[in-house]
Amino acid sequence: MTFAEPLWLLLLLLLLWLIYRYRRAAGQRHVSLQVSRQAAMKGVKTWVVYARSWLQALRWMVLVLLIAAMARPQLLWYEEQTEAEAMDILLVLDISPSMLTKDFSPDRLSVAKKVANDFVARRPFDRLGLVAFSGGAFTQCPLTNDRRLLQGFINNLQVGKLQDGTAIGMGIATAVHHLKDSPSPGKVVLLLTDGEHNTGPIGPIQAAEIARALGVRVYPVGIGKDGLVLSPSRQNYDGTYTFAQRQMQFDSTVLTNVARLTNGRFYRAYSANDLRAIYAEIDQLEKAKITINKLEQKTELFFWLLDAAFCLLALELFLRWGPLRVITV
């Protein structure tokens, strides 16, 4: 059982406070009567006196039932059968210091993380993971169906976790190694970088050949503008960076060959909108065929609570103005 409007249940807290105030005030309204001996009161307290003490309890029960009815209790019957050819996708993100370049607002890495999170949210049936690289590479998050977990890892990516450099080949190789034992018929590496390969024991072409042998497609994305841009020039003692205008030139030849060798495609992103469009296009290219049979049935229960509340209220009014009526003289 579930509640369609559970916030209404907060009124129960208010009701508890009202009950407390009522009982406290009722205690102060009691009238004392002094008699010479207890036998003088024998037979005075009848069943009517006891019954009247329960009248207000009936009123509180009516209010409880009305609040529960407003929360709309439901019996939920749910059955889902999903047949999906789920894909395994590893996001490979560059976290070298140049990703803090401010030709994107606020910087390249922040935009890359935002767009990657949006991409993850649009892939509900696939397993996704995350590899980060700079002068080296490591698996930040293995393949998982937990979208919130993966998005948390993406949000926590920071520059400076690895030595400086751009080891594109190591980033691809790390992702491919993680995918090599995957039973999925669709295995994809989505690589994003803003620099040229300049370090690492495995080069991009060698890593691409390994990916092709294992049936992994690689989609490289080059991010950043060419020309003078405000980019980190040196790292300070406190871990921050000093920025200066630097000349940037992106060589797309290697990444184009990586895409060609793995039956992928190379993309170039000069702005945040370009990057969003690229991820959206890859999202369409790598759609899995999914068949879903879904059956959902809800049975509303609030009218039963309303019926019970009406019956209790009618009973309370009948007793209050009938057998338990008090006549004031």
Description:
With 329 residues, this protein is of the alpha/beta class. The chain folds into two domains: 2-28 and 39-77 and 296-321, no CATH class; 86-288, 3-Layer(aba) Sandwich (Rossmann fold). 39% of the residues lie in helices and 25% in strands. The protein contains ten helices and eleven strands. The chain has helices spanning 11-29, 47-52, 55-70, 108-121, 147-155, 168-179, 204-213, 253-261, 272-285, 302-321, and strands at residues 2-3, 73-84, 88-94, 127-133, 137-144, 187-193, 216-223, 227-235, 241-248, 267-269, 290-300. It has a six-stranded mixed β-sheet, sandwiched between helices. β6, α7 and β7 (216-223) form a beta-alpha-beta unit. α4 packs parallel to α9 (272-285) and α6 (168-179) runs parallel beside α7 (204-213). The longest helix is centred in the C-terminal third of the chain and has 20 residues, at 302-321. It is elongated. The two termini are 52 Å apart. The mean pLDDT is 84.
Q: Which short descriptors sum up this protein?
A:
three-stranded antiparallel sheet, 39% helix, alpha/beta, elongated, single chain, Rossmann fold, 2 domains, 329 residues
Query: What integer value in Å does the Rg equal?
Result: 35 Å
Overall mean pLDDT score?
84
The third-level CATH topology of the largest domain is Rossmann fold
CATH superfamily of the largest domain: von Willebrand factor, type A domain
